[in-house]
Structure formats: C-alpha cells, structure tokens
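Why this split exists: single-chain examples teach little about how molecules sit against one another. For that reason, every record in the complexes split bundles all components of an assembly together and asks for one structure covering all of them. Below is a record exactly as it appears in the raw files.
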Amino acid sequence: MKFGGTSVADLDRIRHVAARVKRECDAGHQVAVVVSAMAGATNQLVKWCNDLDPLHDPREYDVVVASGEQVTTGLLAIALGKIGVKARSWQGWQVPVRTDAAHGKARVESIEGAALLADMAAGVVPVVAGFQGVAPDGRISTLGRGGSDLSAVALAAALKADRCDIYTDVDGVYTTDPRIVPRARKLERISYEEMLELASVGAKVLQTRSVELAMKYRVRVQVLSSFEDRPGTLVVDEDEIVEKLTVAGIAYSAEEAKITVRRVPDRPGVAAALFGPLAAANINVDMIVQNVGADGTTDMTFTVGRADLARTQEVLATLKDSLGYQSVLADPHVVKISAVGVGMRSHAGVAATMFRALAEKGINIQVISTSEIKVSVLVAAEYRELAVRALHTAFGLDGPEPPAKEEEE
Ligand code: ASP
Ligand code: MG
C-alpha cells in the first residue's frame, strides 16, 4: 500500500491511513506500506536548498529532501501502534534500497526484501520511506520528484507482492480528463502499455517510470482513492483484460510546439543533418512529417517540447548555411491529442474515425503520427476542449451524465 502526499498531509489523514492499513491486516493480508512526505513538505525542502545556494551539492540536497519521508514513516508507525497494529519505520538505507550514484534523480538498482519479509511474517507492518535509497558511496540518494510511486512498485516487485495499491487523491484512471469531459468514465482495468501512453501524453496519475517498472516486472498496480471506499483502476498485463477497447482513452498534451523548416534541399542526408544536431543538443523531437519535394526542395515539420522551442530555433539558425533551407516557422499554439488503445492492433478504421470526428467540428489537423496502439494529431491550441470532447464521443467512451451537484443544506 502506497500513500501519496495528500493522503498523509496531516495527523487526521495519517490516522485515517492507519485505519485503512489495519483493515487490510484484519482481512488476513500481509502488508508493507510506502509513504510520501506530507503534501508540500518536499517543495519546502527543495526551496530551502535553492535559497541557500542554487548550485548546492546534490548529496546534501538528498539529505535534506529525503527527510520529509522520514517524518511520515515514523508518524504512521506511531499511529498504527496506537490502534494496536505492530509496525516499524524503515528508511531507504536501512532496507536497503540500493541506487546508482545519480544524486537527486537516482535509479533503483536493487532492493533487499528479506528483512521486510521477516517483519511481515512476524506480524509487523513495515512502513518504508518512499523516494529515497542509498547510493554506492553509502550516502542518502533520492529518486527524482514523484519518486515514491517508483519506490512502491520496486518494493512490490522485490517482495513479489500480489498487488501494489497506490492510494492517491483521484479514484482511478479515466477515459480522459474529467475536467474537460464530465462524462469521462473510470476504467476498471488498463494495460501497462496504454497507461504508459496515457501517462506520457498528459494523464498524470502515475509517474511514467513507475509504470515502466511495473510493466518490466509484471507488478499488478491498482490506483485508488484514499478518501473514498471503492475499487480503483487496475493496471495489468494485456492478457488480464478480457474486453479490449479499441480506444481506451483520449489524452492531450499542451506542452508542444510546432516547427516547420521551409524549402530544405531534397537530397540524402538532410534529415540526419537536421535532427542530428538537435539530438546532440538534447532536444527531444516527437512528431515528424516530411513533404514530397516538388522543385528539389521539401518542407520538414516536427514538434518539440515547448520549453525547448527557443533552443531549437537557435540550433536551426546555426544550420542555415550548411543545410541551405529557406526559413523556419515556429508555432507554440498547438496541442497534441491522442487516442490510445490496445484494441487498435486488431481493429481497422481508428484513424479514419478520428479524422471524421475532427472534420465534423471544423478542426484542421496539422500533423499526424501513429504507433501500434496510438493515433495522435496536432491541432491549434484553441480546439483542445472541443477536440477531446468530440473524440471521446466518437469512440463511444461517454458515460452517463454525472448527477447535478446538490445544493448544500
Ligand atoms: N515527496 C516526493 C515529492 O514530492 C516524492 C513523492 O511524493 O512521490 O516529489
Ligand atoms: Mg506523487
């Protein structure tokens, strides 16, 4: 059971978490718990480091920011003891959770589960600090922001857990962003691959790296609310999903920018000459289209993260003479909308349905890209909500109208 920052934000919530853990133990399950720091705590710790010295030693940064989780492990162990559940806290270095030396964004290399398993067998609930581990130099390391999801999945893999329940402030994974489409539905199950696509295109329920790890070690993950009492969404192997939806969800990413390089000479090597230097500058290129050349030149259009737009333009400017293109057009006012579903592998016509739905709303498609389980289009930013709604309806994902909010008495 993993509890995020909002679930352990104050003592009342920590008591509530303890009760939840007790219920699982009473039901006869052996449980290990992973906790985040109290909501907001890590931000404060990061700020203190930066305020003192923006160029701080990352090893000392890790000492500071890992402390938020130390507090919540101890508090939860106390709260559990108070209601008669035997528990003890574990810091990353005590387990130990071994990581590489990349302080501030370390990768988990191994976890020794034996001591925790012995605790559990003896009826003691281990409460483990998320987000932290120990580096090869013996010093405290942290896994990067949001890293306690990763801790939980890695621990579940090491303990060979039946399931890794991630308790959070949403009650599951939805077919799209419910703030845009009130009729979005909660999915009972979703495959690792779909979750990865949805996570990386904007649905920020689980940290992407934690889903990759779950997929690699086949850890069954459940996302559920710590405030409401009902099942969440299971993230599982495709084989565990009986009814495979052609499209399981519609995601969007408003963090892209479009670049068009006009009239590039149409000859072997130009794409390499263009994208090589961008890669060397660590700029991630996402969608790419190249038009058929007419007069010995061609247009190349692609997207980059909006934060990389200025640097991309700089790199392109240095290539103007060697490449001999005519001009560069940049458009940051775009949004990428994706339909994702493993059922696409065996169903034709997904792209056609998508294009028709957008055409009916008069939305112009600027760039298209596809993978085995995803079709993405780039459209003008102002169409974000209209396009997401239209596609959600077109793929039959709309659920019942949510009940109108009742007036407070
Ligand atoms: N407390 C850490 C953070 O805020 C880790 C986590 O909550 O997942 O980034
Ligand atoms: Mg989190």
